[in-house]
From TrEMBL:
This is Parallel beta helix pectate lyase-like protein. The chain crosses the membrane at residues 12-33. InterPro entries: PbH1, Pectin_lyas_fold, Pectin_lyase_fold/virulence. It comes from Desmospora activa DSM 45169. The keyword Transmembrane applies.
Amino acid sequence: MWKADVSRWRRCLKGVVGMTIIALIVSMILVGYEQPAFAACGDRPSYNAEVTNSGSTWTARNGSRTVYSGSDMVAAVQAAIDSLSSGRTSKEWVLVRGDGSMSANSRISLRSYTGIDVCGTIHVSGSGSGDNAPIYARGVRDIEVRYLNITGGPLYGIFMRNVENVVLGDIGIRVSSGLGVRIDNHGDRSVRSRNIHIDQVYVSGTGSHGVETYGVDGLTINRVTARNTGGSGLLLNDTINATVDRIDADGAGTGTGYAALRFANRNGRVGDSYPTNIRIGSVKAVGGGRGIFCVSESGGVEINQVDIQRTGGNAILIENCYNVNIARQSGTVDGGGEIRIAARDEFPPSRDITLQNLTVRNTDIRWSPCVGSNIANRNITRENSNLHWCSSAR
């Protein structure tokens, strides 16, 4: 009898385990499942150099060597970076533990093949000039910033110029001035910065943009969350081959012509044409300046979903852009300024523009002036919204 009871319990346990596994698999399929790339700051199996803080003393060590001890956090972190293997061709890692402060007129410079985890908050104070930033990189490759939190008043939170193979992980920039993240190629504009991956950036309080690229080829962003930025939440200039999963902006560019998401300066132009190469998953814009703004011969864009509410300026403004598809899947626009197709005289008029699958409430849709070609609206539901559309264009 005892053996029979054990056998029944085993069968019951197997059934429970099996059903649990099945339920887990089903839930993964239904809600989606992403294995996190990393779980917590400082969780790598090993680091080549480590920087720690005790009281007012910062200490940097590489193995058994102490490479810095003193009161200057920037000097400690820089010493740790510079202690890594000379001429390396694979990434070596630095761990920083503790909160610290630095001047807006100083920087921590990354070298090629360097990764860094900053497990603490860097507070920036004072005045500065130029392109100084808590994290700075120029003319380097294969760099990674997995964790970083910045407060205070930097010129830039992260500044990178003419870089290649960059990974930014979990980045928090809660500041009162400056620009959040800028990656460009303005040291040598004949060579683009390449292969930039950003996992997630939360940025608030900047005097300028949240995240900005200029002269980049190959950009992937999982998420940009922008709150009360002085300029755009995400601004792409002269950037090609970009994929952005989500932009979530509240109060981006209030009182300005900037937008939650802005394309400018021939963004998306490949050679002399505009193939679809800028792919945006979803855009949420609440308040602020404009919602979506495409300008100055940009294009090659498709945006799957939009949710735009109560913007101070145009909810959507397309001005001298080419091959732009808004709300390829679905979207809502509620209040705010008009949705408009516009034109400036100095550039050729827009062409190949599609607005579709939108529910528009409490604002109008306008194409003016009547210039451009192959400009369409379809499957638009309007509630307290007027359509001012050109019957023909020139």
